[in-house]
């Protein structure tokens, strides 16, 4: 099987909303929710993708012809490439009946771990979603990141115990999940968190804590104040707020604000190739998260599909580094790209 065959296979089982497009740019699904689309008029996912196209590469092949190293180390774990699979929830609702949250995470976590990266897993109304996700991470020797919704802190603490039992190497909260309908009427209240509430979570977290869903410098500094070990520059794929900024548009200013702080910076939103991974690193990210293409990979090829996607991203990143004259991830700096006027 090759990756083109994975895409074709996915179209047979992925349900009626996602089209398993060759270019996953948000155009075909637009504002279909349920489905992989974005909120409101549906252009946020499209703009996430298009914003990366505004940056172009500075080719430089007057360089030593040495081996390219695409690996990174984060939270004392080494990974093949600076890419993580993103969390996906309500798999049945959005992508069809071939997988549910439990079976999807089992395939994704195992395949990612075996291929040298890690997967973020999702959360849901049913507590068993987190139980099954952390069980998959435990089976992968802790190589996975359970992502907890911003429930009441007491409920969050219960889920942190599951992460601890799984020996997860990091734990995340998609704080922008506050915009999801099922969180709005929770008792006790769920949704937005104060800095103090986040501090309480960080203190109880058994591993480095990642705040996912930061889109401004102000938000990044709040996450830092709360003690977050990392943030994810993310607008939740455009699914929680219409007409917000694309992640590529704000990444550089957030990275500049956190420079020297020790807080790791991840970014998601429309990143689809190793070339775009390179651009994100040049703008200041330490790593990226990719979600929707991994859904296609699972539905189209199971574990093999996931590994083919990771291999594709690794090859694209390595080729881009070669042609831009850099040999290690830390050599990818702002001067390796340019902005189109």
TrEMBL record:
Q: Does the keyword Transmembrane helix apply?
A: no
Where is FMN bound in this sequence?
212, 234, 236, 268-272
Recorded catalytic activity of this chain's protein:
(S)-lactate + O2 = pyruvate + H2O2
By its UniProt entry, which Pfam families does this protein fall under? Answer: FMN_dh
| Span of domain FMN hydroxy acid dehydrogenase | 37-341
Annotated active site residues, numbered on this chain, are 236
Question: Keyword annotations for this protein?
Answer: Flavoprotein, FMN, Oxidoreductase
Look up the record and name the cofactor or cofactors this protein needs: FMN
Which Gene3D superfamilies does UniProt cross-reference here? Aldolase class I
InterPro entries in the record, alphabetically? Aldolase_TIM, Alpha-hydoxy_acid_DH_FMN, FMN-dep_DH, FMN_HAD
| Entry keyword annotation includes Oxidoreductase | yes
Family recorded in the similarity comment: Belongs to the FMN-dependent alpha-hydroxy acid dehydrogenase family.
Q: Which PANTHER family match?
A: 2-HYDROXYACID OXIDASE 1, S -2-HYDROXY-ACID OXIDASE-RELATED
What is the designated name of this protein? L-lactate oxidase
The gene is lldD
